[in-house]
Amino acid sequence: MSNIDSLVLSPLGGARLPEGGDVGPIQSGWRLAVREFASNRLAVLGSAILVFFLVFCFAGPLFYHGQTINTNLLATNLPPGAGHLLGTTSEGFDELALLMRGGQASLEVAFLAAAFGIVLGSIWGAVAGLVGGIVDSVMMRIVDVFLSIPILFVVLIIAVRYGPSVLSLGLIIGGYYWLVPARLVRGEVLTLRTRDFVSAARIAGVRPWRLIGRHLIPNAVGVMIVNVTFNVADAILLVAALGYLGFGLQYPTEDWGDMLSNGIGYMQDGYWWLVYPVGACIVLVVMACNLIGDALRDSFDVRLRRR
Amino acid sequence: MRPFARTGAKAAILAVVGATALAACGSSPSGGNSVQLTPNGAFGKVPAAAAFGHAGTITVAEPPGATPTWIFPVTPGANGSVFTAYSFQYLMWRPLNFFPNGASVSEDKPMSIANDPVWSNGDKTVSITLKNWKWSDGQPITSADAEFYIDMLKAAVKVSPADYSNYTPGVGIPDQVVSMSTPNSHTLVINLNKTVNPLWFFENDLAAVQPLPAHAWAKASASGPILDFTNPANALKIYNFLAAQSKSTGTYASNPLWQVVDGPYKLTAFNNTTGAYTMAPNTSYSGPHAAKVSTLQAVPFTSDTAEFNAVKSGSIDQGYVPFTDLPQVKSIESTYNVFGFPDFGFEYVTYNFKDTTGDFNNIIKQLYFRQAFAHLEDEPGYITAFFHGAGGQGYGPVPRIPVSPFTPANATTDPYPFSVSTAASILKAHGWTVTPGGTDVCSKPGTASTDCGAGIPAGTRLAFNLIWNTSPAIIGQQITDLVDQAKKVGINITLKSDNFNHMIATYYDVAQPKNDNLWAMEDFGGFSNSTYPTTNGIFNTTGTYNIGGYSNPEANKLIAASTTSSNPAAVKAEASYLTQQQPSLFQPNVDLIEVWKKAISGPPAAFENLTQYQLSPEFWYFTK
Hints:
The complex is a heterodimer of chains A (307) and B (624). By secondary structure, chain A is mainly alpha-helical. Chain A has helices at residues 3-9, 29-38, 41-58, 60-63, 95-131, 133-147, 151-162, 166-174, 179-192, 196-203, 208-219, 221-244, 256-264, 276-300.
């Protein structure tokens, strides 16, 4: 029933309803965001996919024990069958088990990079936004300079020079992925620092670091969370690109990009199990992260919430 | 797979023949190792010659990056490749002695311009007698023409050592040539500065001499007079003129200089952008050939995928099968004959004898360690699983396949067969505490036969790095298995991928000694080699290509004997010693898989030698 109908049908001009719409019980911003997120079907789908892959990669090996470390030269490039549900690789590794192990590394690097990037970027952006002036200008120009350097170029050089590992790749990629969060958080802080609660905290003598930690960053957390999801997706693609170029993680560690790179050479031979499953994994996880990110952005931004 | 090559008659810098990523295109999802496995390293077979039908135009595939870039047979290092030399220049200007004969390590004497050399003066003087061959303009090929080539080499290296791709300062032609004489038009006598090993000098240097038409080329300008090329000043002018002409790739087919040939073909068209070329038969060719020689058309390809698609569609007469497409061979066997064979040379994992990280230099100096490590390599398994059967074992610098008169006995059967338990036993017997899956530790330092060895303190761990070339994929596959087997005996290897150019520029003791502690082992590919397979330059202490700084006085002595002693078995002794010493981890050799249409036939050797990068279309013909 529309509000207009209510007004017309209400006897004696009974209780007036606000023009903005129905008013429910007062809820916290977080609850509203969660409710908004849950009502977004694509977000739920994305979450389900991501959860599936987390379970698949980290719990799957507990139930499926394919060989991924010891080569088996007598069982190379076998098609999917009873012994190997998704066939074997050119080294005789079980493809399904390798998908799980490769996924572990890819997801670990991606989450590590996103976490490292968001922590560093948030602090950087908050400091720049809060202090302002020349410090802000210098810090943001540094961000601009780093943003102008192609990340693949940098990561390739470092990977070739020092050799990649889950930790080093996570830190290297995270060391680049702080730039966008820094800009976004700075923008948030620029608006927050003029708010009354920030002024009150300053007048009360709260020190800058506490101001950042207790008042500014918590109020910018929505932006940060959204950015984390996109960074996870980007990091997965970057790790895959590195692996595809042959400079990803090294045996005995494996990532999805390595697997794709190894399998693509056999595509014309009809060894589809070396390419399609791992390609699908990368696409699905990246898509899931993006769906979640889009939904989170809608949830945290009141202007984008559905009415 | 043969990024590096040695100096010598058959050695020129080779492009990496790699397995490249292929575009998606479905085919039968067979999986497994479904292709045929054949013994002795050969893949498929060459059918006997069928009856001559007719001549026509034969199209051949030029692999990506293999287009010719230099026509003058004195080729600078920057232009040196087997594709430029063997598949292009040799069709127009033949060497004195033609190697190999099909896929076997021997001379194809009917294809040679000269008879075998005669030695005298304690192997310091060599006399060469030319057959009665003629240039395409009807002039006879004389001993002066052979002398002209050597004088051009002298002039080239005077301009720059880089102007002759097979130049080694002080070694062989031209530096060891003190004087030359031509007592008659068919005889060339060369005096050398010191005694050489006749076989080495013949197969590595002399055989590669390509007589050049001095009566047409010995001039300093297009319209200038013929000069006395034996005068060094004139030789320099002539060389500069000819080299300048060769730089003008757009005039290759029109320049009258290049139309005077002694090979079976004359160039009629050359696209200097794509590298495509067409050659017409030299009707005055003096060598053996088919009843009627076909026109040759070389078709360049920008990727292996494109080339193999052309093969699958039947649009070229002769091509190759990229390595990753081997499982698809059956799909073309109804249209094409298929034959694969390794070329002469070896693949290896290079050890860095200068890497002091974790005392690796002292560990790798131990023969027992190198032998134990060799036991971890499953060569037959690699050939079956990774090469699809298309390869041959290589236990030393002279591989088991192709069969060579220089193959030592210990290179025909694996001296260190795959056995993880044997490797573990060897390590235990030399003072190492072996921890399968972990990292071995030296628990018995010292120099006794049961100790770890000199310079290896107690607690030293068997943990080091290995840098590998990501292309072709079979390098990574072999390395992955090697690392897995090594882990089983507690040798902990950390892998790092790289690309060929960066590896050669960075991990190279001779050129980059400052990087010695950055790498313990590397696998960039291997070496192409001449039919006389000395490792001079590779495993002698002062070798230009001694990448890992291997130094062994006995090896130096044997390598020197291969190039200077008169003992024809010297190189065999060298190969035997190096096979036993394992200065590097020798790997199996992969086949080059060549295909040609079933409608084309000829003597089997004329197709077998495709696997050695030779091109002999003068023998090919259509059967119907």
